[in-house]
Design goal:
Strand content of chain A: under 5%
Number of helices of chain A: 10
Structural class of chain A: mainly alpha
Shape of chain A: globular
Helix content of chain A: over 70%
Oligomer: homodimer
Largest interface: A-B, 34 and 34 residues
Chain lengths: ~180, ~180
């Protein structure tokens, strides 16, 4: 029943997308975007498979970025791009949203893994230290906490750069990016 | 991994549909059609849930038809309707394809359940008698073999009637319907 419920929710998503109140051309692009982001190549399922296979191994930074890009950044990116497509964004604007999403997605995951080490369970509101206990592959484990935080900062700066052409319209997205690196839980 | 593979195939289907070589409006309709046919309300997943819940109970003919309609006929219908939409069929033509699909889908399942009783494993090429052994809900169990075969014949006649307006173009579909009730395995 749990598997059927999962399958049903996945199917339901596409039924909802097919009824969006925007031109059919945009709806089709959004379907493709969500399908790729959840799929096997650079998508969430592909990332999860590589993550499972990487458990208890010593993965490279390249593999780690693939996992974060696919498991975390892909869906954040798809959300941003889908919103843009729904609102009628031009190709160039969609490209900026995509690059912004990738950067904050990677930054989000790095900060998440750092907080798992530096914060207490009480501060996080969930069990801290789980990654170390389960030998999960993370940036802090691979390059240390300081280098990880520097990488997250650099990614957020990259993200900001992608928003320049949107001007004040992008203020909410900027706040979101800032929140991702400054949050303490 | 098996669950991820299933999720991946489901997602992949929509990625493929989004790239079909037909107008975006038709592609969106096909996405909606497939999503509904595999979904919870009158779709394959809904039918499977009711089927699981009906095991070892004494279900009504109404519930049995819901299961067959959802688990078997929905996907056959979606295949026919999607082909029609892809080829640019008009609303009226799509309605005929839909009614044809429902009728042959129900007939297919009835014949399948009859063969499970009347044929040997060797004739079927798979284990016969499985439905009876597992107390599966079937038409033969509910109304007997003769009444079941009559119902299948009536459904195929209904199906033929839906094809009238297509003339000779529908010859392949007619052959398909005939095969479904005349097959011995």
């Amino acid at each position: 029943m749990a598997i059927l419920a999962g399958d049903a929710l996945q199917t339901q998503a596409y039924e909802v997308l097919s009824r969006l109140q925007c031109p059919a051309e945009a709806r089709v692009k959004i379907v493709a975007e969500i399908a790729r982001a959840t799929g096997t190549v650079n998508g969430m399922i592909g990332g999860q498979v590589v993550d499972l296979e990487a458990e208890h191994t010593k993965p490279t930074a390249e593999m780690l970025e693939y996992i974060h890009r696919s498991k975390t950044a892909a869906l954040i990116t798809a959300s941003l791009v889908s919103g843009g497509l729904f609102a009628g964004a031009k190709d160039g604007e969609v490209a900026h949203l995509r690059a912004f999403g990738l950067a904050i997605g990677l930054a989000f995951q790095i900060v998440d893994d750092v907080l798992d080490i530096t914060q207490t369970s009480q501060q996080l509101g969930k069990t801290a230290g789980k990654d170390t206990a389960s030998e999960k592959v993370t940036y802090p484990a691979l390059i240390g906490i300081d280098a990880s935080l520097k990488k997250a900062d650099a990614l957020v700066n990259d993200a900001f750069a992608e928003l320049k052409s949107f001007g004040e319209q992008a203020e909410t997205l900027k706040e979101l990016a800032r929140f991702l690196v400054e949050r303490k839980k």
